[in-house]
Design goal:
By secondary structure, this protein is mostly helical. It has two domains: about 90 residues, Orthogonal Bundle (Recoverin, domain 1); about 55 residues, no CATH class. It contains seven helices and no strands. It is globular and about 45 Å long. The two termini are about 30 Å apart. Bound molecules: calcium ion (2 copies).
Length: about 150
Protein backbone atom coordinates (compact mmCIF):
# COMPACT_ATOMS: atom_id res chain seq x y z
CA UNK A 1 0.00 0.00 0.00
CA UNK A 2 1.18 3.51 -0.80
CA UNK A 3 1.04 5.11 2.63
CA UNK A 4 1.98 8.67 1.66
CA UNK A 5 -0.77 8.67 -0.98
CA UNK A 6 -3.36 7.44 1.55
CA UNK A 7 -2.22 10.06 4.01
CA UNK A 8 -2.43 12.80 1.41
CA UNK A 9 -5.96 11.76 0.51
CA UNK A 10 -6.80 12.06 4.20
CA UNK A 11 -5.08 15.43 4.38
CA UNK A 12 -7.21 16.76 1.51
CA UNK A 13 -10.36 15.66 3.31
CA UNK A 14 -9.37 17.45 6.49
CA UNK A 15 -8.38 20.57 4.56
CA UNK A 16 -12.00 21.61 4.11
CA UNK A 17 -11.33 25.02 2.56
CA UNK A 18 -8.78 23.48 0.19
CA UNK A 19 -6.11 26.07 0.82
CA UNK A 20 -3.40 23.42 1.03
CA UNK A 21 -2.97 23.62 4.81
CA UNK A 22 -4.74 22.11 7.76
CA UNK A 23 -5.54 24.83 10.25
CA UNK A 24 -6.72 24.75 13.89
CA UNK A 25 -10.33 25.34 12.84
CA UNK A 26 -10.16 22.26 10.62
CA UNK A 27 -8.58 20.18 13.36
CA UNK A 28 -11.36 21.30 15.65
CA UNK A 29 -13.94 19.60 13.50
CA UNK A 30 -12.03 16.32 14.02
CA UNK A 31 -11.82 16.59 17.79
CA UNK A 32 -13.71 13.97 19.76
CA UNK A 33 -14.41 16.06 22.84
CA UNK A 34 -18.12 16.82 23.35
CA UNK A 35 -17.53 20.39 24.55
CA UNK A 36 -16.47 23.40 22.52
CA UNK A 37 -13.64 24.13 24.90
CA UNK A 38 -12.47 20.53 24.82
CA UNK A 39 -12.49 20.61 21.03
CA UNK A 40 -10.39 23.75 21.01
CA UNK A 41 -7.91 22.23 23.42
CA UNK A 42 -7.74 19.03 21.44
CA UNK A 43 -7.22 20.89 18.17
CA UNK A 44 -4.31 22.83 19.63
CA UNK A 45 -2.79 19.70 21.08
CA UNK A 46 -3.00 18.02 17.70
CA UNK A 47 -1.53 21.09 16.08
CA UNK A 48 1.50 21.09 18.36
CA UNK A 49 2.53 17.62 17.31
CA UNK A 50 1.68 18.03 13.63
CA UNK A 51 3.09 21.51 13.10
CA UNK A 52 6.80 20.81 12.81
CA UNK A 53 7.92 24.29 11.72
CA UNK A 54 5.69 26.20 14.15
CA UNK A 55 3.73 28.31 11.65
CA UNK A 56 0.43 27.25 13.29
CA UNK A 57 -0.77 25.30 10.32
CA UNK A 58 -0.03 21.85 8.96
CA UNK A 59 1.45 21.43 5.51
CA UNK A 60 0.93 18.21 3.55
CA UNK A 61 4.64 17.43 4.08
CA UNK A 62 4.32 17.79 7.85
CA UNK A 63 1.19 15.69 7.85
CA UNK A 64 2.73 12.84 5.89
CA UNK A 65 5.96 12.95 7.88
CA UNK A 66 4.29 12.84 11.28
CA UNK A 67 1.75 10.17 10.38
CA UNK A 68 4.30 8.02 8.60
CA UNK A 69 6.20 8.05 11.88
CA UNK A 70 3.12 7.53 14.05
CA UNK A 71 1.99 4.63 11.88
CA UNK A 72 5.39 3.03 11.41
CA UNK A 73 4.59 0.36 13.99
CA UNK A 74 1.27 -0.54 12.38
CA UNK A 75 0.91 -3.32 9.90
CA UNK A 76 -0.93 -2.57 6.65
CA UNK A 77 -4.24 -3.74 8.03
CA UNK A 78 -4.02 -1.43 11.03
CA UNK A 79 -2.85 1.41 8.88
CA UNK A 80 -5.73 0.97 6.47
CA UNK A 81 -8.23 0.99 9.32
CA UNK A 82 -6.56 3.95 10.94
CA UNK A 83 -6.82 6.01 7.75
CA UNK A 84 -10.38 4.90 7.16
CA UNK A 85 -11.38 5.82 10.71
CA UNK A 86 -9.79 9.22 10.35
CA UNK A 87 -11.55 9.76 7.04
CA UNK A 88 -14.93 8.95 8.54
CA UNK A 89 -14.15 11.38 11.33
CA UNK A 90 -13.23 13.96 8.74
CA UNK A 91 -16.62 13.57 7.16
CA UNK A 92 -16.15 11.00 4.43
CA UNK A 93 -18.93 8.50 3.93
CA UNK A 94 -17.86 5.18 5.39
CA UNK A 95 -17.27 2.59 2.76
CA UNK A 96 -19.14 -0.62 3.08
CA UNK A 97 -16.24 -3.01 2.88
CA UNK A 98 -14.41 -1.10 5.58
CA UNK A 99 -17.46 -1.15 7.81
CA UNK A 100 -17.71 -4.91 7.43
CA UNK A 101 -14.04 -5.28 8.10
CA UNK A 102 -14.32 -3.25 11.27
CA UNK A 103 -17.24 -5.21 12.55
CA UNK A 104 -15.40 -8.41 11.77
CA UNK A 105 -12.24 -7.25 13.46
CA UNK A 106 -14.12 -6.22 16.54
CA UNK A 107 -15.59 -9.69 16.77
CA UNK A 108 -12.25 -11.27 15.96
CA UNK A 109 -10.59 -10.21 19.18
CA UNK A 110 -7.66 -12.56 19.03
CA UNK A 111 -6.96 -11.52 15.43
CA UNK A 112 -6.95 -15.07 14.27
CA UNK A 113 -9.09 -14.22 11.26
CA UNK A 114 -11.67 -16.48 12.76
CA UNK A 115 -14.75 -15.37 14.61
CA UNK A 116 -15.46 -17.89 17.30
CA UNK A 117 -19.09 -18.83 17.56
CA UNK A 118 -19.98 -17.56 14.11
CA UNK A 119 -17.77 -19.84 12.13
CA UNK A 120 -17.92 -17.85 8.94
CA UNK A 121 -15.53 -15.87 6.89
CA UNK A 122 -17.34 -12.58 6.53
CA UNK A 123 -16.09 -12.09 3.01
CA UNK A 124 -17.45 -15.20 1.40
CA UNK A 125 -19.91 -16.32 4.04
CA UNK A 126 -18.17 -19.67 4.22
CA UNK A 127 -18.33 -20.65 0.57
CA UNK A 128 -14.75 -19.81 -0.39
CA UNK A 129 -11.85 -22.19 -0.73
CA UNK A 130 -8.74 -21.68 1.35
CA UNK A 131 -5.52 -21.01 -0.46
CA UNK A 132 -7.13 -20.18 -3.78
CA UNK A 133 -6.80 -16.85 -5.49
CA UNK A 134 -9.18 -14.25 -4.22
CA UNK A 135 -10.28 -10.89 -5.56
CA UNK A 136 -10.51 -9.53 -2.03
CA UNK A 137 -7.01 -8.09 -1.81
CA UNK A 138 -5.96 -7.54 1.78
CA UNK A 139 -9.14 -9.19 2.99
CA UNK A 140 -7.95 -12.41 1.46
CA UNK A 141 -5.41 -12.94 4.23
CA UNK A 142 -8.21 -12.98 6.76
CA UNK A 143 -10.30 -15.05 4.41
CA UNK A 144 -7.63 -17.68 3.81
CA UNK A 145 -6.79 -17.91 7.50
CA UNK A 146 -10.42 -18.37 8.42
CA UNK A 147 -10.65 -21.33 6.13
CA UNK A 148 -7.39 -22.84 7.23
CA UNK A 149 -8.71 -22.80 10.76
CA UNK A 150 -11.93 -24.41 9.79
CA UNK A 151 -10.32 -27.16 7.80
CA UNK A 152 -7.67 -27.89 10.42
CA1 LIG B 1 -7.29 24.61 5.22
CA1 LIG C 1 3.58 24.05 9.83
Amino acid sequence: MDRPASLLALFRLIDKDNNGYVEPKELKSLASSPTAYGKLEEAHETLTWLDLDGDQRVSPEEFVEVFTFVCSQMDDREFELFVEDAKVQAGAAPNREMMLKRVYQQLDRDRSGWVAGLGVCYECGGGGVAGQGSPHGTVHVIHARAHERREA
